[in-house]
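User: I'm writing a short methods note and want a consistent example. For Histidine triad (HIT) family protein, I'll paste the sequence; you return only the structure tokens, no commentary, since I'll be parsing the reply automatically.
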Amino acid sequence: GPSSDCLFCRVVAGEIAPDVVRETDRTLAFRDISPQAPTHVLVVPRDHHPTIGALTAADPGLAAELLAAAQAVAEQEGLATAGSPEPGWRLVVNSGPDGGQTVHHVHLHVLGGRGLTWPPG
Ligand code: 5GP
Ligand code: ZN
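Assistant:
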């Protein structure tokens, strides 16, 4: 099943020790092992869903919880407040081959702590 084959299922199960930033009953946020910015946190659902599209179709409430968790991480990391995106941050969800997704357990990237360029390439 997915929990033995999937890297982030193994993180959620505690088989790989993550640097945890925030957790709820249904979500887990931990630092990326190869940070691309001073703050680079991954927010995942504890349940296995391969992509943002699969998650949104199967459990839209959980997709909304994941978005709220990303906002809470941004606030916790000092990148935003509830009322203002200052100094600012970026939310990225890579999906599929052209999107550059490499881990097939949906995850939101919370990036910030420096000026980020656009377009991302
Ligand atoms: P994707 O390219 O699928 O959107 O992002 C996968 C992310 O997972 C990458 O940013 C990569 O650095 C991160 N990653 C891969 N393996 C591990 C790991 O074992 N632990 C953590 N914390 N991050 C990982
Ligand atoms: Zn998984």
